[in-house]
Design a protein that fits this description.
187 residues, mainly alpha, 7 helices, 55% helix, 0% strand, flat
């Protein structure tokens, strides 16, 4: 019922996924308890979450848990698969308040440092037990809004190329159909 910090510095980015998972599997009270890891990396992935991400994304145990892999696990697993409410809000064309609330709730369920929007006051961690929400509900809403705006802006910048790509596809299909007709017609 307490949070124990690892003693000394650990370079997670130079460890393999297999090594991180082995150290996460060490039991409390084991002779090598001092090597135990729990929440790891930039996104503080606990053992079950890391194992699910590795399995879901087909990540090799030999892969280094470097920054790029951590970002991939965040984008392709944490917010897309495990907590899709976050992706739903970020990909919404409008700033929908219900989607935003669900996204904050999902984030609070994933990270104890994010306040639970369903607990009055906007400052309390869903998890308790020594955990403290260092990110308030209002702060999380603002972070999510900013990220959504960036994504919306990026999508606006790609509308024209996507439309051009669709036109090229359409023209290509029409050209193939004309070519088939010409080949079928005796000449």
């Amino acid at each position: 019922n307490k949070i124990i910090a690892v003693q000394g510095k650990i370079d997670i980015e130079n460890m393999t996924i297999g090594e991180v998972m082995r150290r996460q599997a060490i039991k409390w009270g084991a002779p090598n308890e001092n090597e135990k890891l729990f929440a790891v990396g930039k996104y503080q992935m606990i053992p079950e979450t890391l194992a699910d991400a590795v399995k879901s994304l087909g990540i090799s145990a030999d892969a280094k848990m470097d920054g790029n892999l951590q970002e991939r696990m965040f984008n392709e697993y944490l917010i897309s698969k495990k907590r899709p409410e976050i992706a739903n809000y970020l990909n919404s064309p409008i700033d929908d308040q219900k989607l935003l609330h669900r996204a904050v709730k999902a984030a609070s369920l994933e990270w104890a440092s994010i306040a639970d929007p369903d607990i009055p006051g906007g400052r309390t961690s869903h998890y308790g037990s020594g955990n403290k929400a260092s990110i308030t509900v209002d702060q999380m809403k603002e972070y999510l809004r900013r990220d959504r705006e960036v994504l919306v802006a990026k999508n606006k910048n790609t509308e024209i190329p996507n439309q051009i790509g669709q036109k090229i596809d359409k023209d290509s299909r029409e050209n193939k159909e004309l070519k088939k007709e010409a080949e079928a017609t005796p000449g």
